[in-house]
UniProtKB/TrEMBL annotation:
Keywords from the named record: Monooxygenase, Oxidoreductase
Protein name in the entry: Antibiotic biosynthesis monooxygenase
Entries under Gene3D superfamilies matching the protein: 3.30.70.100
InterPro entries, A to Z: Dimeric_a/b-barrel, Jasmonate_Hydroxylase-like
SUPFAM superfamilies in the cross-refs: Dimeric alpha+beta barrel (SSF54909)
Entry annotated with the keyword Membrane: no
């Protein structure tokens, strides 16, 4: 399920990556899976965290979008010590390349088909 549309403004942090062969394109080799699970546990504890969407392609491109109520929540996540350690390990072992974009959401809406 996609993360619900929230009342703007809020922030979207978009992390787009391609893993190294050592990092395991399946997301489980080299400790990546465990670290990823831990990061999800940590980010959920941040006041102002709204949710996260993930998508991946067969070619290895992965996109994660985290949603945060305000810039303070984004900063708390950015500066978390365990998150910083995971970033360092990611650059050393798991990622071939990545980009990070932080955007302020000014408009948001959603749709869900009714079944029944």
């Amino acid at each position: 399920m996609p993360v619900a549309a929230y009342e703007p403004p809020y922030y979207a942090v978009v992390f787009t990556s391609v893993k190294t062969e050592e990092g395991g394109r399946d997301g489980v080799a080299g400790g990546y899976g465990e670290t990823n699970e831990r990061m999800e546990e940590l980010v959920e504890k941040i006041p102002g965290y709204l949710g996260m969407d993930h998508a991946g392609s067969p070619g290895g491109l992965s996109i994660t979008v985290g949603y945060f109520r305000d810039a303070d929540a984004v900063e708390e996540w950015r500066s978390n010590a365990e998150h910083l350690a995971a970033q360092k390990r990611g650059r050393a072992e798991w990622y071939e390349r990545y980009t990070l974009h932080v955007a302020k959401v000014e408009r948001s809406h959603g749709f869900e088909r009714e079944h029944g």
